[in-house]
Amino acid sequence: MRLRNIPGSREVIAESEFVIHNEEEKKGHWKEIFGNNNPIHIEIGMGKGTFIMESAKRNPDINYIGIEKYSSVLLRAIEKREQEPELPNLYFIRMDAEYIENVFDKDEVSNIYLNFSDPWPKDRNAKRRLTSDRFLKRYTNIMKKDGRVRFKTDNINLFEYSLETAKECGWEILYETRDLHKSEYNEGNIMTEYEKKFSQLGNKINMMIITQP
Ligand code: SAM
Predict the structure, then answer these.
(1) Which of 61, 96, 105, 118 is catalytic?
(2) Which of 30, 69, 80, 144 reaches 20 to 30 Å from 11, CA-CA?
(3) Which residues contact 74 (CB under 8 A, 6 or more apart)?
(4) Full-prediction pTM beyond 0.70?
């Protein structure tokens, strides 16, 4: 999702109380930001934030951080967030997840959600995929030992690649389905914007849950 550059979006982000600024200074201090010891879940590439906002509403005992690379997209999430200001367990960061190890310390994150991540279909761009070996290594460096990565996509090629990569990198596959909406895991499933769009078109939704052994 890449909206056209929206003039003024950077200024709105800079002034938003819902966005964490100077995020690299918060490494190792996220408990202090939230003011509690609750587990921290992050969504990488949250888009307009529908999934993470609903997650934060349903689970007040979990702290959520939504990460988005593009200001124009984050702006939409902030606008939505402003309609629901009473969510002390949710913040946003504008950053490229490539630098995630500069922002979170070892063991600081419990779960990572990857929802409808960009597929980067060309081999030469494989390292940009959020489920590539490079990214999985980054996740290992910030996650708790029993932490989980949950990945949803309608893109079957990206899904098969992600399963294979996770196995090759020594992650354990806890769950996999190629039709989430007909599976036992559909109960309580929070649909993302892309998930709504693609399932309405008749696309099946794939999901995997992986952990580090
Ligand atoms: N997760 C949302 C959903 O399911 O509706 C949005 C999916 S959209 C296809 C992918 C989003 O991930 C885009 O908003 C894009 O800007 C963001 N993104 C892609 N690569 C990223 C990265 N390296 N770091 C942070 N965000 C990224």
Answers:
(1) 118
(2) 30
(3) 9, 13, 19, 68, 92, 94
(4) yes
